[in-house]
Amino acid sequence: MISKKAKYALKALKNLAENFEEKKPRLISDIAEAEQIPKKFLEAILLELRNNGILQSQKGKGGGYLLRMAPSEISLAKILRIIDGPIAPILCVSLNFYGQCDDCKEEEVCKIRPVLEKVRDANLAVYEKTFVSDLIK
User: Which residues lie below 8 Å from residue 118, measured CB to CB, with a gap of 6+?
Assistant: First the structure.
């Protein structure tokens, strides 16, 4: 399950993608109102996306946020990793955030791990092949 923060990030990116061709920054307050996202929460989300190269911001009159790249270049996998971290259901099957389970002595004999690897792969297949541009089609 993705977090509410990730859901809000996707909604905000969808909003920015809808206006991508205009090349005009959008105000946080306009995005928050249009997508029903608490403004303070959205500020933190957009800052995190900017710091990770997804968005750019402009200050002053006419300022706001806009996508740094085309919506068709931003996968959901990338966004979910930025906002939520691992896509895998448990750390021992994560490709980018691997961590050994506290309660598992030997991963090789774990009966749960192979099933959760399949869950990871299925989710990842969808997230990596779905882009922000798909949210506005």
Answer: none
